[in-house]
């Protein structure tokens, strides 16, 4: 499917490729993840830029970053792909070819790390249609209990009445600082982390609770220097060298690729978050074969591979 622009056409693959490059901040790394030759990927992006008539990526010594126009396109790319899913579903319904449709919730870190592949699954699955909703874990749990979504991949979900859960993997977190070219990259302990100017979200956030619980087990005090309202604000403080933070890899992958951040593993093995698949008890006790085969297995395998040694399958 393509949309004519300026006499040419922008296609789905170009949008997927474009978002993947921005996620990695590097064409070479994106090509590796997409199993494409770097030259072929570069040609696709140049074709995309020619079709829209503006530069979308700015090349620099460390890789690439989106231009102002590129940021606008990035903002809309996921919505475009999801709306295509909806259109195809309606068309199939009108012709008697309707697939089983599932609305799946995912967190921002999952979407940033494997979002392009998730959307590709939705385009290629023959027996099911997947639509994705991106929210924080506690918001996904609330949406599930309101029957707004069917399943969700969410972190640190406590046992909840009416909700089934399946633990998938543990993910260790990183201590994050600005990259000044001389930063230590070795593992760091929690006590040393707590002596820095930490920026965290509110007490409703998973990372906040992980840090406070781990500190309490060791009788350590936690003094949060900056309590902010968004991960974007935290990353801005870290990049300016004003604050440090504790974050998952998926949230900081782009900053790491352009060498804006240094991420140090945390020595304590309990500074982790657990990824769950959650669903309503009204849907039954077991995960449908379509979900397990088409989505659950591939997503967990890919997400674990991207995290490397920081992930442990459960």
Q: How would you describe this protein?
A:
The protein is 45% helix and 24% strand. The protein has helices spanning 12-24, 27-34, 38-52, 68-94, 108-124, 137-145, 190-193, 206-217, 231-239, 249-257, 289-307, and strands at 2-5, 8-11, 57-60, 63-66, 100-106, 128-134, 151-155, 163-172, 174-178, 199-200, 226-227, 245-247, 261-265, 272-280, 311-313. The strands form 5 sheets. It has a 6-stranded mixed β-sheet with strand order 6-5-7-14-8-15, with helices on both faces. The chain has a 3-stranded antiparallel β-sheet with strand order 12-9-13. Strands 1-2 form a two-stranded antiparallel ribbon. α1 (12-24) packs across α2, α1 packs antiparallel against α5 and α5 (108-124) packs across α10 (249-257). It starts with a strand and ends with a strand.
């Amino acid at each position: 499917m393509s949309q004519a622009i300026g006499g040419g056409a922008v296609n789905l693959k170009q949008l997927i490729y474009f978002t993947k490059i921005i996620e990695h901040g590097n064409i070479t790394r994106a090509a590796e993840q997409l199993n494409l030759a770097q030259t072929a990927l570069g040609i696709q992006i140049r074709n995309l830029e020619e079709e829209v008539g503006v530069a979308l990526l700015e090349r620099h010594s460390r890789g690439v970053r989106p231009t102002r126009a590129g940021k606008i396109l990035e903002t809309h790319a996921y919505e475009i792909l999801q709306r295509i899913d909806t259109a195809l579903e309606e068309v199939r319904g009108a012709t008697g070819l309707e697939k089983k449709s599932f609305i799946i919730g995912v967190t921002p870190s999952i979407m940033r790390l494997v979002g392009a592949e998730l959307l590709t699954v939705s385009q290629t699955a023959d027996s099911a249609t997947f639509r994705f909703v991106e929210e924080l874990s506690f918001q996904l749990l609330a949406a599930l209990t309101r029957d707004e979504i069917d399943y969700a991949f969410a972190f640190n979900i406590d046992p909840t009445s009416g909700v089934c859960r399946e633990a998938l993997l543990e993910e260790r977190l990183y201590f994050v600082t600005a990259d000044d070219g001389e930063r230590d990259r070795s593992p760091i302990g929690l006590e040393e982390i707590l002596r820095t100017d930490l920026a965290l979200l509110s007490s409703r956030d998973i990372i906040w609770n992980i840090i406070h619980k781990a500190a309490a087990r060791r009788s350590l005090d936690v003094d949060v220097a900056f309590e902010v309202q968004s991960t974007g604000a935290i990353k801005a403080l870290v990049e300016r060298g004003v604050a440090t933070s504790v974050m998952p890899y998926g949230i900081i992958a782009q900053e790491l690729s352009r060498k804006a951040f240094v991420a140090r593993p945390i020595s304590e093995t309990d500074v982790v978050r657990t990824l769950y698949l959650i669903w309503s008890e009204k849907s039954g006790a077991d995960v449908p074969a379509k979900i397990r085969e088409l989505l659950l297995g591939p997503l967990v395998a890919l997400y674990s591979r991207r995290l490397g040694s920081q992930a442990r399958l459960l």
